[in-house]
Amino acid sequence: MNLSFFDQFSSPTLLGIPLILIAMVFPALLLPSPGNRWINNRLSTLQLWFINLITKQLMIPLDKKGHKWALILTSLMMFLLLTNLLGLLPYTFTPTTQLSMNLALAFPLWLATLLTGLRNQPSVSLGHLLPEGTPTLLIPALILIETTSLLIRPLALGVRLTANLTAGHLLIQLISTATTTLMTTMPVVSLLTLAVLLLLTILEVAVAMIQAYVFVLLLSLYLQENI
Amino acid sequence: LTRSLVPSAPAALRALPPPVAVGVLHTTRPLHTTQQSLAPLPPLPEKGGEVRHGLIPEEFFQFLYPKTGVTGPYMLGTGLLLYFLSKEIYVINHETVAAACILTVIIYGIKKFGADVAAFADKLNEEKMAAAVAMKNEAIQTLQTAIEEEKKEQWRVEGRSFLFDAKRNNIAMLLETNYRERLLMVYNEVKKRLDYQVAMQNLRRQKEQEHMIQWVEKNVVQSITPQQQKESIAKCILDLKALSKSAHAAV
């Protein structure tokens, strides 16, 4: 199995059958559905506690109308968290490294928040295009800038996630290749590189969790503006 | 679920020609209507299955023990690994190093925080149980207090007659006292009025006496003529002289 650097980013297929769907659905298999017991096992209890924590954090700034978004935001959070963390295991495929998937997640959700705002409170939504207290001369320029910033949001959301994860995975690959190559010629340098790799792995774990959280948090912020 | 229901088919269905009998679902009892589906679930086992090295169930080691002893599974694992490596079924590439790193991080994390996370999960469950148990105990306590209060009330009911007698006596005494007070008041009032009458009579008599005395004295003084006055004065002087002589003699 000789891997090039881009094999981990290609959509997995087995004998021509695309496995991308299985790769995306797999994290759901790791979450036990709460049984009809009053006291559950440790995993179910921890999962319940964690989901409660996330939902509370996301829903506190929103008013009652925003609570309709609780399910999609929490499930999005769990999905991103698990796919990102599972992608750190060797020989796994991370769906969130594909720009297509991240844009497919970001664009519709962002558009939904925008359309909700424009439909229910159009003047308030458009009012967000002009920050308070700007000097009168700057108003046209600022409106253009704010509109650009608004329209670039889905792109930013998708590309941020893709870039972070792809860069992290690529770095891990490169540094581990360097370690492997140097092991035969300069073992000491190889060990140093291994230390760098360990630190990088810890960073990647943190980045995986943070990126998932940032994605969902930004979406909830866009929702707050527009609900 | 591969319950062979054909042998238990009723005789009427067995009489049908085979193609129809094969396609028909033969059941002798209706499904999911008995209490079995609604019965309380059996209790969960206290601990999960025993696992060695966090991955391999203990049953695997027990399975190999009779034939290969204690070191059997380890030999199998080592042999398998070396086989994969030597035949290049598993190729050592950069992913191996990355795998080693991520496994180190994962195992370190589990060893360091595993017990704490488990204790936290147990604590969450314990708190849930404790809240329910506390509610139950509180309800029991409330009911017991209610029972004791009720018993005390029943004991109080027995002493009711004594209480009423005491109250009755109290009231009778009050009435009696009130009556006596009023009697005394009446007596005092009547005495005051009678005393007033007596005082009036006494005063009248005294005034009459004084008036009479004064009248008598005035008349007497008026009736003394000058002649009588001179005679009486001369007699007094003679009496005095006689007295003084007798007094001189006595001394």
Automatic annotation (TrEMBL), chain A:
<keyword id="KW-0375">Hydrogen ion transport</keyword>
<dbReference type="GO" id="GO:0005743">
    <property type="term" value="C:mitochondrial inner membrane"/>
</dbReference>
<dbReference type="InterPro" id="IPR035908">
    <property type="entry name" value="F0_ATP_A_sf"/>
</dbReference>
<dbReference type="GO" id="GO:0045259">
    <property type="term" value="C:proton-transporting ATP synthase complex"/>
</dbReference>
<comment type="similarity">
    <text>Belongs to the ATPase A chain family.</text>
</comment>
<keyword id="KW-0138">CF(0)</keyword>
<keyword id="KW-0999">Mitochondrion inner membrane</keyword>
<keyword id="KW-0472">Membrane</keyword>
<keyword id="KW-0406">Ion transport</keyword>
<keyword id="KW-0813">Transport</keyword>
<dbReference type="InterPro" id="IPR045083">
    <property type="entry name" value="ATP_synth_F0_asu_bact/mt"/>
</dbReference>
<protein>
    <recommendedName>
        <fullName>ATP synthase subunit a</fullName>
    </recommendedName>
</protein>
<comment type="subunit">
    <text>Component of the ATP synthase complex composed at least of ATP5F1A/subunit alpha, ATP5F1B/subunit beta, ATP5MC1/subunit c (homooctomer), MT-ATP6/subunit a, MT-ATP8/subunit 8, ATP5ME/subunit e, ATP5MF/subunit f, ATP5MG/subunit g, ATP5MK/subunit k, ATP5MJ/subunit j, ATP5F1C/subunit gamma, ATP5F1D/subunit delta, ATP5F1E/subunit epsilon, ATP5PF/subunit F6, ATP5PB/subunit b, ATP5PD/subunit d, ATP5PO/subunit OSCP.</text>
</comment>
<dbReference type="Pfam" id="PF00119">
    <property type="entry name" value="ATP-synt_A"/>
</dbReference>
<dbReference type="InterPro" id="IPR023011">
    <property type="entry name" value="ATP_synth_F0_asu_AS"/>
</dbReference>
<keyword id="KW-0496">Mitochondrion</keyword>
<keyword id="KW-1133">Transmembrane helix</keyword>
<dbReference type="GO" id="GO:0046933">
    <property type="term" value="F:proton-transporting ATP synthase activity, rotational mechanism"/>
</dbReference>
<keyword id="KW-0066">ATP synthesis</keyword>
<keyword id="KW-0812">Transmembrane</keyword>
<dbReference type="InterPro" id="IPR000568">
    <property type="entry name" value="ATP_synth_F0_asu"/>
</dbReference>
Automatic annotation (TrEMBL), chain B:
<dbReference type="Pfam" id="PF05405">
    <property type="entry name" value="Mt_ATP-synt_B"/>
</dbReference>
<keyword id="KW-0406">Ion transport</keyword>
<dbReference type="GO" id="GO:0046933">
    <property type="term" value="F:proton-transporting ATP synthase activity, rotational mechanism"/>
</dbReference>
<dbReference type="GO" id="GO:0005743">
    <property type="term" value="C:mitochondrial inner membrane"/>
</dbReference>
<dbReference type="GO" id="GO:0045259">
    <property type="term" value="C:proton-transporting ATP synthase complex"/>
</dbReference>
<dbReference type="InterPro" id="IPR013837">
    <property type="entry name" value="ATP_synth_F0_suB"/>
</dbReference>
<comment type="subunit">
    <text>F-type ATPases have 2 components, CF(1) - the catalytic core - and CF(0) - the membrane proton channel. CF(1) and CF(0) have multiple subunits.</text>
</comment>
<dbReference type="InterPro" id="IPR008688">
    <property type="entry name" value="ATP_synth_Bsub_B/MI25"/>
</dbReference>
<keyword id="KW-0472">Membrane</keyword>
<comment type="function">
    <text>Subunit b, of the mitochondrial membrane ATP synthase complex (F(1)F(0) ATP synthase or Complex V) that produces ATP from ADP in the presence of a proton gradient across the membrane which is generated by electron transport complexes of the respiratory chain. ATP synthase complex consist of a soluble F(1) head domain - the catalytic core - and a membrane F(1) domain - the membrane proton channel. These two domains are linked by a central stalk rotating inside the F(1) region and a stationary peripheral stalk.</text>
</comment>
<keyword id="KW-0496">Mitochondrion</keyword>
<keyword id="KW-0138">CF(0)</keyword>
<comment type="similarity">
    <text>Belongs to the eukaryotic ATPase B chain family.</text>
</comment>
<protein>
    <recommendedName>
        <fullName>ATP synthase subunit b</fullName>
    </recommendedName>
</protein>
<keyword id="KW-0813">Transport</keyword>
<keyword id="KW-0375">Hydrogen ion transport</keyword>
<keyword id="KW-0999">Mitochondrion inner membrane</keyword>
